[in-house]
Structures are given as C-alpha cells and as structure tokens.
Amino acid sequence: MEDWYRHRYFNNQIDISGSGVEEYSFAEIRNRADFDFTELDQLHAIDGETVGCLSVRSLLADRFANGDPDQVMTTSGANEGLHLVVRSILEPKDEVITLGPCYHCHDKIAESMGCTVKKWAIATEENTFSLNFEDLKKLISSKTKALFVNFPHNPTGMTISQAMADDIVNFAREHDIFLVWDAVFQYLTYENPPLKDPVLVYEKAISLGTFSKAYGAPGLRFGWLIGSKDVIAGCVRQKDYGNLFVAPLIEFVAEKMLRHLDSFAQEKLLQATENRAFVNAWAKRLDSKINWREPGGGVCGALQILEHYDDVKFCDKALADYGVLLVPGSCFGMPGFARLGFGGNGANLKEGLNRLKQFITAG
Fold it and tell me: What are the domain boundaries of the chain?
C-alpha cells in the first residue's frame, strides 16, 4: 500500500482513497482544545520519556484502559506501536493469525522476522463481508503466538458483534496467545456501539490507538499502545533501538486534545455518517457495474468493480484519466476490489464520485 501511495498521494486531483477522517487545521485544533500556542514558550527542546510523559499516559489510561498509566506507552502513530509489539512478543518460526485481507503492518512485519502468517479469511458475500468463527479454530496450532485483528476493519469497513468479539477474547485466553487489538477505528461506528476493548478483561490483550483515523490529526503522528507491564517493558527495549521517545512538542498538543477528545470525534463521525449515506446512494445507481457493501464502521470500504478484473490497472486509469485516487485491493491481498474512502470533505467526495461514475460508465 505504501509503495502505491509513494508517488501518487501528493500527485492527484481528488483523493477518495484514505481510511481516516478529514484533517483539522492547527487553528481548529487550538480552538477546539482551548489552548494558545504561546503556551509553547514554556517548553524546552529536551528529550522525552521512553514510555511517554505521565500526564498523557494517565489521560489515555483513564479513557481507554484500566486507569493504570504504567500499562500505557505513547508511540509515533499506531504503525510504530505495531512494530514495537511485533518485535517484542514474536520470535522467528512463531505462527500468527491475521485477518485476510489485512492492513500490511499486521502481517508483513511478522513475515519479515521469519514468522508464519495464517489468514482468517473474510468471506465476500453478495451484500456484506463476514467472518466464520469455525474457520479461526482451524488455524490454531501449538506454534501460534498471537492473533491480530482490527474492527471496524481496514479496508472493508466490516464490523462484528460484541458476542463475536467476546468469543475472540475467550479463544485467545483458552489458547494462551496474545490478542493484538488494533482499535484505530473503534469509535467510528454507525448502527452499533463501539466494541469493548479486550485490554479491560484479558491480560494478554494489547490495544493500539492513534489520532490519525477518528480524530482528524494524522500529521501529529501520535499514537499509543496499552498492554501488560511485561509487554510495555518489551516495547521499551525495542524503542531504545528506534526513535527513543515521542517528541514533547507532540505530546503537548496530544494532551490538550485528549482533554477534549469527544469534541474532536463527534464532529467527524457526523460528517462520516453523511458521507457514507451519499456513497451508498451513489453505489445503488451503479449496481449493475459495481458491488458496494455498506461499511458498518470506519470511513472506507471495498468497492468491487464488476467489469474490471485488474484492480491495479483500474486504479491507475482512474488517476491518470480522471485525477481520482483509489487504492487497489491487491495492496491488501484483495484483487478485484479498490479501497474507497469517504471520511474527507463532502464536496471533494462528491466530485470524486462523479468523476469515478464517468469512468465506470464509459467502460
């Protein structure tokens, strides 16, 4: 996926490819979080704590975990958190289970270490995406060390019931494996309430979050991971070999945002809800050309192009001829689909879909 974006992300006219909400400006962040940039004058350009400053970790722990800041570590986005976790809990020849398709950090880091990755396949049905719990049971072995999941799912937008989430937690507990719970879209849900975070009930669960998806601040590169103190200690050792700490300047802004996080999330969820409705209506008018399964959460979905079997060529042509950026499903191991994002500016989305309709109907 990153290879696809590398030379296209900043060279398009209309971007409807992403998995996050529309970004706030720094003026909007300052006003919404109720602080003045003159407060930065009090800061010194010093090092930060490896695990993150206590005040920020305390806010994260109170909101997302069990109130214990020693079970929280701040990271440079969720991607760094995934790197730290994978390299601290896994060893070569371990087996891990991920969803299939999945976000690339869920499988590629483990594969690069010499681990075996098994895929819990998401079924592609006519009107929805789904998981069969019996399929998961067939993947477990004595070598399985961890299960990686994220709900709502990227790139399909699929969600699961709380009952299935509970079954997943119990499955991990029964087999004494790590459950890596990528929760970056946790609060971007529509009809159903957000799933409960397993770190609240299972000692080998590890949860990851970020400001990049639901909170409109990807440029801050601020994220966090929550886990047992042993997991945090292992991640600290890995971070010693990397960027050492999250910059105090970033944590300063993050702390201000955390104190008003509902405000940041609610506006973007409302925008995403309206945008999703527009995409659904747009897709219905093209149902002989495409298949769109309404996402239950997140701000992206998998668009199936019925008459174009090569998704890479389809997305290349959409960009070259119509200026519209999508991500080929092949980037996620999902050929025949394209990731369509609807979290951004509404006018931009409508223009992008109008151009995409022209492309699809032109044949």
Answer: 2-18+263-362, 35-259
Parallel/antiparallel/unpaired status of strands 72-75 and 223-226 = antiparallel
Query: Helix (H, G, I), strand (E, B), or coil: what is residue 153?
Result: coil
Fold for the domain defined by 35-259: Aspartate Aminotransferase; domain 2 (3.40.640)
- CATH class for domain 2-18+263-362? alpha beta
Q: Is 288 helix (H, G, I), strand (E, B) or coil?
A: coil
Give the DSSP letter string of 186-255.
Answer: TT-BSSSPPPPPGGGT-TTEEEEEESSSSSS-GGG--EEEE--HHHHHHHHHHHTTTT-S--HHHHHHHH
DSSP β-bridge partners for residue 67:
none
Contact status, residue 41 vs residue 262, Cβ threshold 8 Å: no
Backbone CA torsion sign across 230, 49, 104, 65: positive
Q: What string of pLDDT tens digits covers the 363 residues of the chain? A: 566 666 766 666 789 998 999 999 999 999 999 998 888 888 888 878 889 999 999 999 999 988 999 999 999 999 999 999 999 999 999 999 999 999 889 999 999 999 999 999 999 877 789 999 999 999 999 999 999 999 999 999 999 999 999 999 999 999 999 999 999 999 999 999 999 999 999 999 999 999 999 999 999 999 999 999 999 999 999 998 888 889 999 999 999 999 999 999 999 999 999 999 999 999 999 988 889 999 999 999 999 988 767 999 999 999 999 999 999 999 988 999 999 999 999 999 999 999 999 999 886
